[in-house]
Amino acid sequence: MTVFDVTPRARDLRERLTAFMEEHIYPNDAEVHRQIDTGNRWEHLPLIDQLKPRAQEAGLWNLFLPPASSRDGKYGAGLNNLEYAGLCEIMGRVWWAPEVFNCSAPDTGNMEVLARYGTPEQQEQWLIPLLNGEIRSAFSMTEPDVASSDATNIQSSIVRDGDEYVINGDKWWTSGAGDPRCKISIFMGKTDPTAAKHLQQSMILVPLDAPGVTKERMLTVFGYDDAPHGHAQMTFRDVRVPAANMLLGEGRGFEIAQGRLGPGRIHHCMRLIGQAERALELMIERAGQRTAFGKPLSGHQHVREAIAHSRMEIDQARLLTMNAAHMMDTVGNKEARGQIAAIKVVAPNVALRVIDRAIQVYGGAGVSQDTPLAMMYAQARTLRLADGPDIVHTETVAKVEMKRHAARQG
Amino acid sequence: MTVFDVTPRARDLRERLTAFMEEHIYPNDAEVHRQIDTGNRWEHLPLIDQLKPRAQEAGLWNLFLPPASSRDGKYGAGLNNLEYAGLCEIMGRVWWAPEVFNCSAPDTGNMEVLARYGTPEQQEQWLIPLLNGEIRSAFSMTEPDVASSDATNIQSSIVRDGDEYVINGDKWWTSGAGDPRCKISIFMGKTDPTAAKHLQQSMILVPLDAPGVTKERMLTVFGYDDAPHGHAQMTFRDVRVPAANMLLGEGRGFEIAQGRLGPGRIHHCMRLIGQAERALELMIERAGQRTAFGKPLSGHQHVREAIAHSRMEIDQARLLTMNAAHMMDTVGNKEARGQIAAIKVVAPNVALRVIDRAIQVYGGAGVSQDTPLAMMYAQARTLRLADGPDIVHTETVAKVEMKRHAARQG
Amino acid sequence: MTVFDVTPRARDLRERLTAFMEEHIYPNDAEVHRQIDTGNRWEHLPLIDQLKPRAQEAGLWNLFLPPASSRDGKYGAGLNNLEYAGLCEIMGRVWWAPEVFNCSAPDTGNMEVLARYGTPEQQEQWLIPLLNGEIRSAFSMTEPDVASSDATNIQSSIVRDGDEYVINGDKWWTSGAGDPRCKISIFMGKTDPTAAKHLQQSMILVPLDAPGVTKERMLTVFGYDDAPHGHAQMTFRDVRVPAANMLLGEGRGFEIAQGRLGPGRIHHCMRLIGQAERALELMIERAGQRTAFGKPLSGHQHVREAIAHSRMEIDQARLLTMNAAHMMDTVGNKEARGQIAAIKVVAPNVALRVIDRAIQVYGGAGVSQDTPLAMMYAQARTLRLADGPDIVHTETVAKVEMKRHAARQG
Amino acid sequence: MTVFDVTPRARDLRERLTAFMEEHIYPNDAEVHRQIDTGNRWEHLPLIDQLKPRAQEAGLWNLFLPPASSRDGKYGAGLNNLEYAGLCEIMGRVWWAPEVFNCSAPDTGNMEVLARYGTPEQQEQWLIPLLNGEIRSAFSMTEPDVASSDATNIQSSIVRDGDEYVINGDKWWTSGAGDPRCKISIFMGKTDPTAAKHLQQSMILVPLDAPGVTKERMLTVFGYDDAPHGHAQMTFRDVRVPAANMLLGEGRGFEIAQGRLGPGRIHHCMRLIGQAERALELMIERAGQRTAFGKPLSGHQHVREAIAHSRMEIDQARLLTMNAAHMMDTVGNKEARGQIAAIKVVAPNVALRVIDRAIQVYGGAGVSQDTPLAMMYAQARTLRLADGPDIVHTETVAKVEMKRHAARQG
Hints:
Butyryl-CoA Dehydrogenase, subunit A, domain 3
């Protein structure tokens, strides 16, 4: 409970979401893993299809779109970032849960981009089916051959040719591309390598069935393939798409990326906090059940310290993230960029520490398939890299701070 | 700027306080140290006496008393814990500033105890002069011969003898006793060593000029004597005080301690955050002024990382502390005891890390008398010990968390 | 280069081993993974079979047996712990390399137990084929239902019945049991639950094809199955083995465990140091190749700090481990138990920090199958648990230290 | 006991030194502080004068000069760096002890410079009285107005004028200048600001009684003035010294600094390790004496963890330092520069962590004058700055490592 638990509407949604998680998500966790492990790993999971209509009926659908993007509630639930943050934490507690509520990455970010910047035609063709949960989407930005933390490194090209754009490039960590329902990717590449640094890039819609688009292989994350979602390495060879697939206009890729990033970071961080909370609960549970050297694990001070430090770190990370969400809602993404950068450093590192402590309390079970901990760790670890490594965001925090200091000094 | 900056009244006080600090405190820092170093170290500082009436005129006086203790504004400004927290941070930026506003420890805690639990006579005799800033006070709890983190260890005795109590015991870290205006101490000792654990202790008012009270020596903190405030080691030998000096009643020492602790911890933590903010500002200032290896220090990535991590840690610690204050205001000290314990661990450690980084950026100046950093470090270091060492509060956080978990599990 | 590089013989072996690694191991790393990923994962790898005779020819075979266990060189190379340590580090740089030299766990520990405590018949039947690399072995100690860090928790039973023992129990993390050539396991269980604490346990040889022995499933470590070696969960239901399979005698399980542990920990730690060195090399390599924000990664100070701290930590961990080996060689395992406990805490944590930094420098490639880093991390993480979690060894270090202090005080 | 305990001669000296410490140093610690606190703080201590002849008689005098500097034993004991390291640790356990053995900084470094580079006349005039312990010396390098971590920043000038040099500059942290017997300082300044970067600087001998030399004030370190040794801020205004006072030659200041630094860092680090060992002993002592919550402090797991981690860190730091000493002895200071840089980062940080844990175990006593801990902390903290801040040495370690890697890659 914090000062942030403000609106009755958010509190109501939180209660209903928690109830849904308890009724439909936690009890089905084992079944989801059974379906993945026993079928073709890259098929859509029947269970998730069964749960989606229930979430829709329960009014727990497309909760993520903030008012600015939802065109006054035309799309989505119209929750502001602070209201959604608390819900995102709850969904994030189980890795496959967000999709049930049509709130999973990278679909959320893609839908937000389409809602904000898409033409009516683009929205009709791609946004509506995405909002309905009928198709899924990917985001193709990172490239295998360059340090993508520096976006100016990007080598992919998007070249106008008559009514079409011709797309070439190698991409990897195209997450979600493993799902057979993944139909569309937002692709980032350079339309004009000679333009000013931040005007070289564009984003364009590329259907995954377009000729020249190839899924080369699926990447693993600490041994996990994250099926059926997955992370693809892809090649784009002379892929032709209609010129109308361009988003917002040539050279505006950075602008879109900026707008996309803020909410996405809140989401990632709140899901991580949800994971950390769950890891802490599991840790406490185990600490009460196992006995070593004549007393329960919770009777050992270092276990209690693990619990206490986890609580202190999680609470701080949550408050920081909710404060960043609140800043976005009140002063805007640009003014809040320091706060947004800060949570992107803090939340993954806190989650990793908490999960790691839980693993240690569990012993061998902690690294095995018998707890969700090792998989949680692997996923959280990628978030110190994905969407910019720690150092990039740390530099942003420093830059904002030094500017603020200079302004104060006059 | 955070979600916590709520009431206009708090915002107004913050602005006026900031202006006062800029006009009267920062510019006089050097003069205060000059007065200490050139006079008798243990005399009251003339400068502080000059500033007190100005603070009173400015309406910046006795800001600390929360409504529950202020008898509906009869005493103090009637600010709640959250409102005061932000002000406490600002005053805390300079170690001698709180006294100017009559908001310095241990007077604040003592005044709160007297306002809450004192008889009208006790209030007349001691609270009113304290509220007027005419006298100062001390708190005698810690003992040199036992681990005082475990309050049941306390060996001092308070024995009823007719209309008097006879007091015996050795105390140290009686902070503030160095000041010649320190007239009274709240003394903790056992009235009944055979009672139940938490009913053995009592608190009683002991005038420092009572026969049998001796200041044995002043303690140093690292190499600082913290004159003229100071930390005394004291002996109490057959000290007789009127029975009416007993606070609340025999055996109620723990009860008083509990009530006293919550606000005191908010104050300590917010002052630490103020110190950390100031250290961060000093760090940034130096980073822009000095040059090494062909660029300003701020051109070196490790300095920028020091700045960024300090900002991230301070913001988290502040949010955690303000949230704890908010919890105290809304659900009460007892319900908020986990949060109060958490800040007592987090804030001193954060402050120490930030100050230490600032020292490193300053080089030799950082450990010397030329910056306030080393003294800030020494003071912050004691707060990992004073009022309970880290581990005691860490255990509280764990206990609360495990109980909460058990309650959730039904 | 350290003071420990002493004997010419060790130096010679180190050079030849390094040459072998460069000629036969590193270049075949990709092929090993191809064989695992394309065949039946649980078949023995042809490549390793081809390399074993070459290692034998090169005189790089069974290097691990210290003189005390090698019966004066009857078995093994007769290297002392310090001499072997440096070789173990080199082999450990590639996870599958030790088997090529017949120096992989748990075979090494098992062979040492058989060499030290086995009867001539036991040695004939199991030790000789193991020394020849014809069969492989497992060690069944950890149990899924209890905290095995406290060995007194073990629930498996070994009951004498005429000329046989009847074995019952659930075991997991029986590493190596995935290999089809794994023929024998050393099984730990209680022969007398009523005996004094350290006399309840025994170790006995259990052929894996004995009726009642079932591999229930293979465990994953993070997402890795570590095929074809693997980690099995196994049940032993009324398994009958000849009474002659008992090792050393009933109730002497702890005694054997103690003897086994010292060298095993040196081996684990030196392999971890080898892994850390390789991670550091990979980190430096990448830092020179990739460019971000206009300069190579190595031009960024935080990357150089990652390199420097890795070097400092690895060097300290190696010196600590080699010193522990030296102590074992000179004053014996019992006297060196504090040092042995210390390395078991230090080395895995150092390796994890170094590998984690390397992952961060690599970005997405670091967590994927394109570098060995994520797998190295997963394996190193288990070594904060396997063979006792950090806290157990930390407690040993403290105990030894406090005893030493007490002895000094007289 | 480590592998480094090699020569019988070193072992013998260690035993005799330990005996001397027990007989003459530890029992006099309180008396030393009494003499400082009750007399004129800046007078030479009578007790130390009484102990010096005893140390000489015991053959424990000038142990620090390595063979290369001792002119084949003409001066000093002729111990190599590894042999001396162990002795330096023992002397370092008490801050005032090294002077008793004529082994205190900065005299040791100054004597080494004079022994190596001094002319016969310089040696006659300054080295002999220093070796006899009759006078003391200082080293004037750091300047208040620039980042002295970058030696090219130095602003002091040394200008030839006929048979003299004219010296101008501001210096601070001229340690040892507080002692009335301090007669001479080695002064670093620029003789030719237009020369190549590393040829601009020179070192020259400046008698402290030369006209124009002024001790402006004494600096404090966390409140300590470190009397009677002390750290002076000094001005040099048109100070004239004979041209013969130049050391080695104009422009060779860097060269001398390089030679001086290696052994000096070993000494600093081994003294720090001695301090850390003593802090650990004090921690264990207290942990056995105090009781909290029904058991001795040592019965609390976090105290045992503090003990264990301190032991593990100290042992690693000592091995690293002894290995660096061994490298200096065998491959030379230049080849060992990576190792020397590493210990300068590792040892102070380890000492600080250990001392800080000891403070925490002691509670209030830990920060006060009742234990040596706070003073030890303050001194150790300066060593993360003095003689180059952590980052400078960290960069050296990285540079050496990357070069080594490049060499290996061919």
